[in-house]
Amino acid sequence: MESRCPVILDTTGKDVHAEGAHLREQGPIAQVELPQGIRAWTVVGHDLAMKLLTDPRVSKNPRQHWDAYINGEIRSDWPLASWTAMDNMTTTYGADHTRLRRPVVKAFTPRRVRAMQPYIEKTVTKLLDDLAAVPPGEVVDLKRMFCYRLPASIICDLFGIPEESRAAILRGGEMTTDSSITPEEAEANVRDWTAQFQQLLEAKRRHPGDDLTTDLIASAEEDGETGMTDNELIGTLFVALGAGSETVMNLVTHAVHKLLTHPDQRSMVEDGRASWDDVIEETLRAESPINMLPLRFAVEDIELEGVTIPKGDPILMGYAAIGRDPEVHGANAGEWDITRTDKDHLSFGYGTHFCFGAPLARLEAQVALPALFERFPGLSLALDAEELQPQGTFIMNGWKTLPVRLLAPAEVR
Where does the chain cross the membrane (predicted)? Predict the structure, then answer.
């Protein structure tokens, strides 16, 4: 396996599942090539992923454990530069990770998330009202008008992002997950989002609000020397807003698409033979919102599965392939089946870096999906499923658009 040539990842994400299957031919971990010829490893096996996600020999801090970054070989115009430029809980190791994660996790406890349900329901109703105003028969991009607007509105409201700043701030997260951007775009993106979040921090210090950004600033000031620096606050805001919008968008988009293309399973949900939780968890398993998550690093040489990952080598977690591991889910692992008894997945991560927003993401989907299909029972794709275009990146797993036609109850014959 070590003698095989690395797989050059398709930066356009033309078919992430086919690429994942190709990587699996090398075993549960495969050597890959990232943009600009950077060599790395991608984990595609479920059991191996669980081991590495809790292995202390694996770090997420490039400033400590990626020699190429430390030596200046990775420049600010590398297409994935924002994943290394961020200074937050997702790019730290050990005690620093605990320090930076603690104040954020407090805001996303299961109890606090459950208390948000009325607010989420109100937001969903508003978005459905907007969809209902579309002229009958007109084609609607449901991804943009509903699947994206829902999590984007909620996460921006939570962090107190002004309406006039939302588009620019969220655009930074979109570009970060685009593996096909140019070096110039990558460098400009890091520069721009840093400036935008610095302006937000300054505005919140002048005019504190009832929002999580204000809470994080207050926590940093109260903790003194152990609190977040401005760079860490900026990095934390960036990852929270990006993860809180992009991943939920893909989860809801995939769930809608699967129900529209699997009418038999949609009927099972509608007559109570299956639950909306079945839909959500099976979608997370078979269509992980994130395809490959950058970046982790080997703290020392790691020997596993007949392979040695050299110290300092980057590692990606191939969540889309991990969810479809036939060693765990059988020969039909690539099929979406809500009756599947084993829907175990790692799409929210595992171990100390488990996604702090998982309870909120699940709740948003639990509210949004039944409300959408109840309001528009005649919802249908506006084109053949084979015509849908992929999102266009190897980092995310999603569709570029989801064109649909809407029919309200009175219009369904």
Answer: none
Beta-strand pair 307-309/302-304 = antiparallel
**Region of residue 296 (left: phi > 0; alpha: psi -120 to 50; beta: else):** beta
* Nearest of 60, 6, 57 to residue 303 by alpha carbon: 57
Residue 293 bridge partners (DSSP):
317
Predicted confidence at residue 380, as pLDDT, reads 96
Within 43-182, residue ranges assigned H as helices are 46-53, 62-65, 67-70, 81-85, 95-105, 110-114, 117-132, 142, 149-158, 163-176
Please write the tens of the pLDDT for every residue from 269-321.
999 999 999 999 999 999 999 999 999 999 999 998 889 999 999 999 999 99
> Is the preceding omega at residue 142 within 30 degrees of 0, hence cis?
no
Which letter, b or e, does each residue of 198-216 get, where b requires 16 or more Cβ atoms within 10 Å of its Cβ? eebbeebeeeeeebbbbbb
Model pLDDT, residue 243: 87
Residue listed under structure tokens 């979608």: 283
Instruction: Give SS3 for 160.
Output: coil
Q: Is 230 exposed, middle or buried (0-12, 13-18, 19+ CB in 10 A)?
A: middle
Give the integer Cα–Cα distance in Å for 371 and 99.
Answer: 38
Structure tokens that stand for 237 in this block:
């805001």
| 321, 325, 331, 332 alpha-carbon torsion, rounded to 10° | -50
Q: Tokens 């079945």 map to which residue?
A: 278
Tokens of 64: 């400590």
Token pair recorded at residue 65: 């454990």
> Rounded to an integer, what distance in angstroms lies between the CA atom of residue 18 and that of residue 25?
11
Q: Which CATH number fits domain 7-411: 3.40.50.12780, 1.25.40.10, 1.10.630.10, 3.40.50.720?
A: 1.10.630.10
